[in-house]
Write a structure and sequence with these properties.
Blueprint: H1 2-18, H2 20-59, H3 71-83, E1 92-96, E2 100-106, H4 123-133, E3 140-145, H5 159-176, E4 184-188, H6 201-207, E5 209-215
Parallel strand pairs: 3-4
Antiparallel strand pairs: 1-2, 2-5, 3-5
Helix pairs in contact: 4-5
Length: 217
């Protein structure tokens, strides 16, 4: 009986003596988890630094991926290309809006009054426009506009028809100059989206236009 008590006492003492191993194992596990987290965080920081370095070079146009420019920079580059083209600036005006970059072509010298056919001398303007914009990655909408004076002739019964026909004519010309057709659409607005006062001849002349809208990304 005495031997049995001694064995129980020894076993109990052994269990108490080895209990620290559980705490030690827990501590080792926690430390391992901590080191893994620290390593991952450190690696993440390095990844962020590398990504930032790539982004800086790409936006400056000198990186490994020079085509990856920011949307704002791309719009600025397009606007510069348009405004620096003397052929386009003969008949076109460029302005930035909430919808996107707009190239406005006035009726004068481009269309005959009340007609949708483009004058022969205007072809080189469409060619220059197609060459400048054909590498754009965003949709482009061609919009026709008139002044507020109603039209009715043998071909067009309303300003809606005239504005839509002019937009379609410009769109077709862009395609003829190798502009990707899948990027294009056309719309006619008649005289309901003026940019100037229809009460003056000068204002009406500004409202008779075709807008090429490079839509926002």
């Amino acid at each position: 009986m005495m031997i049995r008590r001694r064995q129980v006492a020894v076993e109990t003492e052994d269990r108490h003596r080895d209990r620290w191993l559980i705490s030690y194992a827990d501590l080792v596990t926690l430390l391992l988890a901590l080191f893994i987290v620290l390593y991952a965080a450190s690696d993440h920081e390095r990844a962020k630094q590398i990504a930032a370095s790539f982004a800086e070079h790409n936006y400056s146009g000198a990186g490994i991926l020079p085509g990856n420019t920011s949307p704002d920079e791309s719009e600025n580059n397009t606007e510069k290309a348009l405004t620096n083209n003397p052929v386009l600036m003969q008949k076109a005006k460029v302005r930035q809006t909430a919808r996107g970059l707009i190239v406005s072509i006035s009726e004068a010298g481009f269309f005959a009054p009340g007609e949708a056919s483009i004058s022969p001398e205007a072809g080189h303007i469409i060619s220059a426009l197609a060459e400048t914009l054909k590498n754009e990655n965003t949709p482009i909408r061609v919009e026709g506009h008139t002044d507020s004076i109603p039209i009715s002739n043998s071909r067009f019964s309303s300003n809606w028809e005239l504005s839509t026909a002019r937009a379609a004519t410009v769109l077709q010309k862009l395609i003829e100059y190798d502009f990707p057709p899948d990027k294009l659409s056309a719309a006619g607005y008649g005289g309901f989206q003026p940019v100037a006062d229809n009460g003056t001849p000068e204002g009406r002349a500004q409202n008779r236009r075709v807008d090429i809208v490079i839509l926002n990304r």
